[in-house]
Every structure is written in C-alpha cells, then in structure tokens.
Amino acid sequence: MAKPLYYPKISDARDFPLGKCLAFEKLDGTNVHFDWIRQQGWQAFGTRRDRFSWDPQGIDQFEQKHPELNQVADAFTLALAETLQAKFVSDQSCEAWSHVRCFGEYFGPHSFAGGHLDEDVKQIVLFDVEVDGQLLNPFEFVELFRELPIARVVYQGKFNGNFTEAVRAGKFDVAEGVICKTGRRGNVHMAKIKTNAYLARLKQSFGSKWRDYWE
Description:
- The protein has helices at residues 56-65, 72-90, 138-145, 161-168, 196-206; strands at 19-26, 30-37, 41-47, 52-53, 99-107, 123-131, 134-135, 153-159, 177-184, 187-194.
- The chain has two domains: 11-27 and 153-215; 29-150, D-amino Acid Aminotransferase, Chain A, domain 1.
- It starts with 18 loop residues before the first strand and ends in a 9-residue tail after the last helix.
- The strands form two sheets. A six-stranded antiparallel sheet has the order 4-3-2-5-6-7. The protein has a four-stranded antiparallel sheet with strand order 8-1-9-10.
- It is globular and about 45 Å long.
- It is built from five helices and ten strands.
- It has 215 residues and is of the alpha+beta class.
- This is RNA ligase domain-containing protein.
C-alpha cells in the first residue's frame, strides 16, 4: 500500500473548473514541507513522501536519505523560518492557527525535472500553506504571504482553453509551466499546465521516458 502524500498530486487541466483563478509559475525543483505548531515552533519537515524531526538528528537523517537535498534545512532557516514564525505569532489573521504546514519548492539555477546540481546554491520558494489540515485558498495565500518569497503569480482571470494554449505556447515567461488554483479554504482545485518548450526538453533528455516527467 502506497504511503499517503503530504502534498496532493496535481492533475492536468482537463477537469479544472472554468471561471476565476490564479496561475502561479511552476518552479522546477523538489516539493518540501515544514510543520509549525503553536507553543512549540518548528517541529518537522520532509519531502512530499516523508517526514523528519526538525532537530539536528532529524536533519542528519534527512540528508543521509536525500543527499541531493542537503541545502534544504539551511535554505529554509535563512529565508523563511524566522519570518514565518513571527507572522504566525503576531499577525491577527493567524492567531487562531494551531498547526501550520508550509509547502515550498527547493531548486537552484540549473535544477531540472527534480534533479539538482551539487554546486548550485539552492533556495526555497513558498507555494502553499495548510492551516489545521486545510489548504488556504490561493487568493488568501497571496494576500497573507506576498511579502515573502512565494511562487510568482503570472495570471489572474478566467480559466479557459485559450489560457491553456497560451501557456503551452510560452506566452507567460515560465520555464516549466504554471499551476492554476481556485476554490475555497479546504477545497482548493489545482491543475498543472506545462509549456511545449519544456516538453521538447524532456524528450531530448529522457527519450521514451519523457511521460514520467510530464503532466
């Protein structure tokens, strides 16, 4: 039996609801998460498939299992940990939150299809926040965290087939593609759309296995 994912799998756009949405740049890296509990602070972190304690022993275990992700703890500590905790503690919008899970993309300038170069300096960009088991809707996420390193919003408006084709054709200045989001807290709809240029790069790099990295 497969282990449950800490972040849901995102499908393609065929069943995405028509209407108002936000589209975020889809960064090409590794999905990581960080758990914060009121009165205790940062408690755990990991990839979308595993979880480790946020302490020296847990960080060491994480880096032994994921040597290619050995800058995750430092990148999060330097760019996000203190600022996020200060917001959770002092912002009235967050005062009722007990358990917060922050999702980010870990990547460097040459990361591709989830792979990373050792010599690259990596960063983490926030793309979602889950509060007491419910994902924030995309509009409140942007409103609350716009001052932090978050995924770039490349489109706000109506989702339709024309938008999908514009993304495919490279009209939005994104390397991999976009993630479209709409809905309300706890019921967020998401879809990914990748560019034709990214598809060509996958086929060149992976040959017949390109579908493993597509939508």
